[in-house]
Specification:
globular; Alpha-Beta Plaits; 211 residues; 5 strands
Amino acid sequence: MHNFKRGVLIILMWIEVNINQPSELSKDDCLIKFVEPTFRKYKNGIKSWHFLWEGKPWSSTLRLRFLGNKSSINEICEFLEEILKGIPHCYGAHGEEGKEYEGEENDWGIKGWERGKMFLEFGAEFALELIQNKDNLGKNNNYKKDAFFFADRYTYLFLNQISSLVNEADFNLLEGVFRYACQHGKILPSEKVKDLTERIKQDILNPQLSS
């Protein structure tokens, strides 16, 4: 990936580190202990970043990605090695150790990924902010609502904005069934997800038929 600054070609690269959530730490603890100090230290020297929770290579994996020049990425890796001493972790795209992460441009498209990484970055920063202030949510003028409210607003309002392309209710039902199954270790084929979704619709619209 390339970036031009004052006529100078700067080569940018991603780094992905996958961290096995220690049993003694909650997800919030991991974010405060590993993500927050790394982001705070290097936020002015990176072009993009985000974190996600994934199910591989470990069942509860904190996936952390940074985009920057080689020097910045090397510094971040050195810092991570310090704070992750004794914690199982590996570097590699989508949890595959040694495989270089190159972003999602090939899958999402050039413009799709350009927007996508901005979306992921904003989400990561706001999620971290909410977690750091979880004791104040719904209790002061900075955060008048709880985390559920913000999750609802952000997902609903974006679906509302693209409602001519995606039906919000259908999307939520399909994703809800699929994600619930994934959360319990079951990967359902798309036809099974659609079938379950249709049955839920019928139960809602015609409850007497399912009684």
